[in-house]
Structure formats: C-alpha cells, structure tokens
C-alpha cells in the first residue's frame, strides 16, 4: 500500500530546514576552507534537534570584509581601528537581524559591543528555517539557515531534547549527553587558541557541567587518542 505521506515528486533543496537550534558557544575566527582564511566568520557550536535526537553541529556566518578577531575570538573589530558596524548585507548581519525579528532579546542582553561580542547568542534557542536573499549580480539568490522564532534560553524545558524513550536508551547505554560533548569541544578549542596544553584542557574540561558526575562523560573528556576531543581540537 503506498505511503500517503511521502510524495516522490515533492523534491527538496537538500538544505537543512525547519529545525530547533540551541546555540552553545560562538566565536569569531577565520577558517582555511573559507576564502583561504582571508575573511572573518562567526562560528557557533550548536545542538540541533535532529530526527534521531540532539546532534552537535557547527554553524558559520560570514562577517564580511574589514574585520578581524580580538580577545581570542571573543570580539570582532575593524582592521582599521574605526568604530563601524557590520555591513548589513553580510550573512552575520542578516543572522542578527533575523534573530531580532524573531523576538530574541539581543539589545537587552548585549554589552557596549553589541553583535560584535561573539557570545551574544550563547544559550539562546531558535527555530530556524531556510531564508532566501537576492544579492544581485553574479551572486544572485542564495539561501541560508536563519532564525524565525526565538524559543527562549537553553534549559531543560527549552533546548532540543531526546524523547523520554530515547533519553532512557541513552542513559542505559552510558552515552554522553550531546550538550556535554559540545561544551567539551568548545573548551578544547579555546584552550588551543590560547596556546594551552592538554593539562589546561583537563582543568577546563572538569569545569564543564555534567562531567564530574558522569563517568562516561569524564572518559570522553580524558580520551587522549587521535579520535579524542583534545586531538581533534588541534587538527
């Protein structure tokens, strides 16, 4: 009997769409696989409510030309030292605008640096969907995953979570919670960027909520193999 809910002629874009996303930690950095590392990005570690439960993902939004990272990625500043806002056509500026339109209390939460502070979105949860922008010229139209509804701050009743059945299965299997994995990876990256070593990472790791009281999470943190958090943070 045919599946009435599946239409093989309803083609998709292949882009991630219609998801709940909890921003764990944002930072400003350059990446070699984006314009050869010549342009600043806002990169956010996040927890996405996937079909099979929470999964960790990294989101990237271009800041545009003329900016560089300061305070070890915590702040974006102009290369020429002038105080100028981001270009409104940059992808990160469009992300900020979409977040404001979705109801996020960015102005209330921001310090004097506003969206130039990488951690502005930390802890916020959004419903996000693909939004198309027309850049004109050779670029034309492009689609990006953008906030369309602010769902609140990260917490037990806010962030994407496993269903009770999946949570029970994860606990029985001794799995490490997705949010702990993201926090440990973020901590490791910050230690690497600060020029720290493995011992510094361990100190930072034990400060992550959910590690001290979870043997599986502690083992995940202490893994010093090539597949461990610390090794991957250095690659």
Description:
A hairpin with a 6-residue loop joins β6 and β7. By secondary structure, this protein is α+β, with helices and mostly antiparallel strands. About 5% of the residues have low confidence. The strands form two sheets. It has a five-stranded antiparallel sheet. The chain has a two-stranded antiparallel ribbon with strand order 4-5. It is globular and about 50 Å long. The protein folds into two domains: about 140 residues, no CATH class; about 70 residues. Helices cover about 25% and strands about 30% of the residues. It has seven helices and seven strands, in the order βββββααββααααα.
Q: What is this entry, summarized?
A:
This protein has 235 residues and is of the alpha+beta class. Helices cover 27% and strands 28% of the residues. Mean pLDDT is 83; it is low at 156-172.
How would you characterize the largest beta sheet? 5 strands, antiparallel
Instruction: Kindly report the average pLDDT value.
Output: 83
Give the overall shape: globular
Structural class: alpha+beta
Helical amount among residues, as a percent range? 25-40%
* Oligomeric status: single chain
Low-confidence spans: 156-172
From the N-terminal CA to the C-terminal CA, the straight-line distance is: 50 Å
Can you write the helix and strand succession as a string? EEEEEHHEEHHHHH
Describe how the helices and strands are arranged.
Elements: E1 19-29, E2 40-50, E3 53-64, E4 67-70, E5 75-78, H1 91-101, H2 106-109, E6 124-134, E7 141-153, H3 164-172, H4 178-193, H5 198-206, H6 215-222, H7 229-234
């Amino acid at each position: 009997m045919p599946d009435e809910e599946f239409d093989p002629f309803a083609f998709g874009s292949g882009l991630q769409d219609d998801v709940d996303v909890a921003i764990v930690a944002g930072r400003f950095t350059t990446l070699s696989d984006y314009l050869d590392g010549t342009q600043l990005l806002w990169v956010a570690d996040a927890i996405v409510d996937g079909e099979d439960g929470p999964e960790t993902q990294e989101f990237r939004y271009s800041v545009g030309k003329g900016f560089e990272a300061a305070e070890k990625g915590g702040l974006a500043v102009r290369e020429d030292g002038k105080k100028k806002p981001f270009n409104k056509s940059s992808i990160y500026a469009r992300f900020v605008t979409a977040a404001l339109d979705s109801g996020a209390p960015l102005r209330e939460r921001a310090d004097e640096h506003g969206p130039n502070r990488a951690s502005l979105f930390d802890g916020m949860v959004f419903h996000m969907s693909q939004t198309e922008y027309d850049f004109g010229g050779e670029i034309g139209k492009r689609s990006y995953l953008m906030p369309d509804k602010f769902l609140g701050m990260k917490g037990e009743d806010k962030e994407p979570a496993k269903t009770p059945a999946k949570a029970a299965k994860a606990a029985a299997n001794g799995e490490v919670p997705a949010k702990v994995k993201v926090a440990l990876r973020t901590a490791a990256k910050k230690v690497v960027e600060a020029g720290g070593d493995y011992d510094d990472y361990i100190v930072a790791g034990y400060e992550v909520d959910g590690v001290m009281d979870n043997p599986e999470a502690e083992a995940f943190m202490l893994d010093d193999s090539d597949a461990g958090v610390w090794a991957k943070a250095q690659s």
